[in-house]
Specification:
It is a single chain. The chain is an alpha/beta fold and about 220 residues long. The chain has a single domain, classed as Maf protein. The protein has five helices and eight strands; from the N terminus they run βαβαβαβββββαα. It has a six-stranded mixed beta sheet. A two-stranded antiparallel sheet has the order 7-8. Strand 4 and strand 5 form a beta hairpin.
């Protein structure tokens, strides 16, 4: 199935395209589809924000839309930055300032208490109006300083518990690599977004089959 991705984040789009291409999906960014509208993400959960984005873009294009709302949840600061991850410093998309604020908020927090998780909620909005959410997590911890250049956002600070080559073949991250120190394949195999998309992949055939059945029933 082809999707319009409800995002103007080039890094996020590339990651979604890499993952979905491997499972037979084609993803076109909303800008490439001629859509520049940016809906206000005023939900209180990742699922709410993912649906807000998907529904808004669907109303414009009328095609299948896939959206993602994701962020970093750090236990020592009550789950922050959470849904405010992209604008934690007060400005949207300033990765450097966001990371600096996170390190400041965790000053004095010892290694064993710096647990965190990246969370991704994927929403697919189908042409028949049905929508479904799929959530994935990647557990890990926050480093004391940035490391790595192959990533964006909080990637240089996030140390996943595991690394691997597939969703079912992982191993402990004994070298304490950050997301930004992993290759694309290593990250895609264990990332929060990969887990959410894997759930979608598992359930999508049934969802599409139900859609086809409903269409035939309505056509009789």
């Amino acid at each position: 199935m082809d999707y319009i991705a409800a995002t103007n984040n080039k890094n996020k789009l590339k990651e979604m395209q890499r993952i979905l291409t491997r499972v037979g999906g084609d993803v076109i960014g909303q800008r490439d589809a001629g859509i520049t509208f940016e809906p206000e993400e005023n939900g209180t959960t990742f699922a709410e924000n993912a649906l807000i984005k998907a529904k808004a873009i669907f109303k414009i294009c009328g095609k299948a839309v896939i959206s993602d709302d994701s962020g970093l949840c750090v236990d020592a600061i009550n789950g922050a930055p959470g849904v405010h991850s992209a604008r934690y410093c007060g400005r949207h998309g300033d990765d450097k300032a966001n990371n600096e604020k996170l390190l400041y908020m965790l000053r004095g927090v010892p290694e064993g208490a710096r647990t965190a998780a990246f969370v991704s909620n994927i929403c697919i909005y189908l042409p028949d109006g049905r929508h479904f959410n799929f959530e994935g997590r990647c557990e890990g911890a926050i480093a004391f300083e940035e490391a790595g250049t192959n990533g964006f956002g909080y990637d240089p600070l996030f140390i996943p518990d595991e690394i691997g080559t597939s969703l079912t073949d992982t191993q402990p991250n004994e070298m304490q690599y950050t997301y930004a120190q992993l290759t694309d394949d290593q990250k895609d195999s264990i990332s929060h977004r990969a887990h959410a998309l894997a759930l979608m992949e598992q359930q999508l055939p049934k969802i599409l089959a139900e859609s086809s059945t409903q269409f035939k029933a309505g056509s009789i």
